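User: Please work through this fold.
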Amino acid sequence: MSTPLEVTVNIGLVAGGMLVVLLLVYLFYALLNAEEF
C-alpha cells in the first residue's frame, strides 16, 4: 500500500512530466513556424 504522500508525489511527478513534454512540443512547433515565416 502506498501512503497518501507517495501517491501525491507520484501524481505531481506525472503532471510535471506531462507539462514539460507539452512545453517542449510547443516550443518545437513555434520554432518550425518561425522558420516558415
